[in-house]
Design a protein that fits this description.
Largest sheet: 9 strands, mixed
Distance between the termini: 73 Å
Shape: elongated
Number of strands: 23
Oligomer: single chain
């Protein structure tokens, strides 16, 4: 990763052996190149396009994006060191490199997800997304994939880089890491053509990279990473551990908040909460309220846990999504029927639903459509949920209520837990991040539907943590007021 020389030839840049070389030569449509910091990811992206440009000349057209302008500046500066010596010319206004053989690479930043809409109608043979984890949602990246097309038979593809952490960790991990945590295995995604029913396959691969793969970085760089202070962040950056969550909005503990299923006692109150969605996912949770202290046995590797009286237990959920961030687009009647079918034989006391669903816009509201079906089936209807996200006038907000329950009682026992069968809550809630503009709120561009549903549940049953008892005064003797002679002039110290 740098300038090398020989008596006969000056090499401006060449890939390092290992993951970087694998990236340059990989024929897959979609490649995620990432893991630990310092793995040579930016150089890998720039080198990959240089190789693509050398093969296909004027038919090679690339787009490289980052989340912010500041990040983009650093990528452009590195590109000057690699592309300038080979005769490529940079247009500062268009942020575009043009190579001597006609190949072009444009740089852009997508500060908002909607910025990706400006590229619809463009045609590229390569799209590069630097630090994909800085994007809270995969939606803008999927839109950029739609720009990959070529009329000259040139192989097209998308290349992404990323480290653990950041607002987009959940979708990056779900899309690229979870299917093959060790990486290196080429996999396929299938798509059905809605016009003729034919199947199209797109291959993809996760190429893991570590700081030790980069021979140009030594002990000083590793020491610098260790100086960030946070053990979780150090582990994520040095080892590429995607199970580490740095800067999470909630203090989630898998061993404390996720429990094996058990038979809910018949006398425990049950209710449901819902965050509605159509084009976006909806989330519905079913809850039981502990009627008395309850001990969860040591099942399936769980060491056992005390659930205090009043603890909320999420025992079932229905997450309406066809893919992360994409809803099922069910009608309100279909959602209601899905609720009814899941509640057969249960006594549900009440339901809480986003109050926006009760708004009447020239006709029956969303809530009215759903409640009408529930009433006919003699099931509990929804009422408007308390939708306060952040604190107002001293009252506990929804997020504070949820945090207080996750923190637990004075003995450290949780006041809210979920069965390990509620997979979408477990997948999305632990990695939610703070809103960069409103630190007391979470980033709503992330997949927050389960968290909203949990918040409504918590606000329907407010929890007030017990204050610690003041320590009793200890007797250390008597003292008399200066000049005092009466009994009242003596005080206990």
């Amino acid at each position: 990763m740098g300038t090398k020389a020989s008596p006969d030839l000056s090499i401006v840049w060449s890939p390092q052996p290992g993951p970087q070389t694998a990236l340059i030569t990989c024929p897959c449509f979609e490649v995620f190149f990432g893991g630990a910091r310092g793995g040579g990811k930016t150089d890998g992206m720039l080198g990959e396009f240089a190789s693509h440009a050398g093969l296909y000349g004027e038919n090679a057209i690339g787009l490289m994006v980052r989340r912010t302008r500041t990040e983009l500046v650093e990528t452009i500066e590195r590109s000057r060191q690699i592309y300038g010596p080979v005769g490529a010319k940079f247009n500062e206004q268009d942020k575009m490199w043009r190579f001597p053989n006609g190949a072009r690479l444009r740089f852009a930043y997508l500060e908002r997800d909607s910025d990706a809409d400006a590229y619809q109608g463009h045609s590229y043979t390569r799209v590069y997304v630097e630090e994909a984890g800085t994007f809270p949602s995969e939606r803008p990246i999927l839109k950029l994939m739609a720009t990959l097309r070529s009329g000259a038979g040139i192989p097209v593809g998308i290349r992404l880089t990323g480290n653990p952490g950041g607002p987009g960790q959940q979708w990056v991990k779900a899309r690229y890491i979870d299917p093959c945590p060790g990486g290196w295995k080429v996999q396929k995604r299938q798509f059905v053509n809605p016009f003729d029913g034919s199947t199209v396959e797109r291959d993809w691969v996760f190429i893991p990279s570590k700081v030790t793969d980069n021979t140009y970085l030594g002990a000083d760089y590793i020491a610098g990473l260790q100086m960030v202070g946070s053990p979780q962040l150090v582990k994520a950056w040095l080892e590429g551990d995607w199970n580490v969550v740095e800067g999470a909005f909630f203090n989630w503990d898998q061993n404390k908040h996720v429990i094996p299923p058990f038979a809910i006692p018949d006398d425990w109150l049950r209710f449901r909460s819902m965050d509605w969605g159509s084009a976006s996912p909806f989330s519905i949770g079913w809850w039981a309220v502990c009627g008395d202290d309850y001990s969860v046995g040591a099942l399936d590797g769980h060491s056992g846990l005390r659930l205090p009286r009043g603890c909320l237990v999420r025992y079932r959920e229905w997450y309406g999504a066809s893919a992360p961030g994409q809803g099922l687009k069910l009608t309100n009647q279909e959602i209601a029927q899905g609720i009814i079918s899941r509640e057969q034989g249960e006594k549900i006391a009440y339901g809480v639903l986003d109050p926006a669903c009760f708004a009447e816009m020239g006709g029956p509201s969303i809530a009215e459509h759903i409640n009408r079906e529930l009433i006919q089936a003699k099931h509990a209807t929804f009422r408007p949920a308390d939708n306060k996200r952040v604190a107002q006038a001293g009252a506990l907000s929804g997020w504070q209520q949820m945090r207080a329950r996750l923190h637990g009682d004075e003995a450290g026992s949780p006041m809210i837990v979920t069965f390990d069968t509620c997979l979408d809550s477990i997948r999305t809630i632990p990695v939610l991040q703070h809103d960069p503009d409103r630190p007391e709120d979470l980033d709503t561009e992330a997949e927050d539907h389960c968290a909203d549903d949990w918040r409504y549940a918590c606000m329907s049953r407010p929890y007030i943590p017990a204050k610690p008892e003041p320590e009793p005064k200890r007797f250390t003797g008597y003292v008399r007021k200066l000049g005092g002679t009466k009994p009242d002039d003596w005080a206990v110290m």
